[in-house]
Specification:
3 helices, two-stranded parallel sheet, 44% helix, two-stranded antiparallel sheet, 87 residues, alpha+beta, single chain
Length: 87
């Protein structure tokens, strides 16, 4: 948190089933990491850089479905972090 706003330029946002070295990429809402805590930490340091979806598992319906699901989830996390920051 001490350097987040000035030293982070791009965030690859993904979740995994377990820590290194043995993990499987999973959906953002179903993994080892608490993605809300990560989004909140970025918000807390006023990060205004790029956050990209990184390695999302496939879904029935193809790539657009999994991308839409992941971006909607990321947006919900950001909305919650922003709402809590203004309370």
């Amino acid at each position: 948190r001490d350097f987040g706003a000035t030293k982070i330029w791009k965030v690859h946002f993904r979740n995994v089933s377990a820590p290194l070295p043995h993990f499987v990429e999973t959906f953002l809402d179903n993994g080892y990491y608490d993605m809300y805590k990560i989004m909140k930490a970025l918000r807390d340091v006023n990060y205004d850089g790029i956050v990209v979806l990184d390695h999302s598992p496939g879904m029935v319906g193809g790539g657009n479905v999994q991308t839409a699901y992941a971006f909607a989830y990321m947006r919900a996390l950001l909305n919650r972090a922003n709402a809590e920051a203004t309370d």
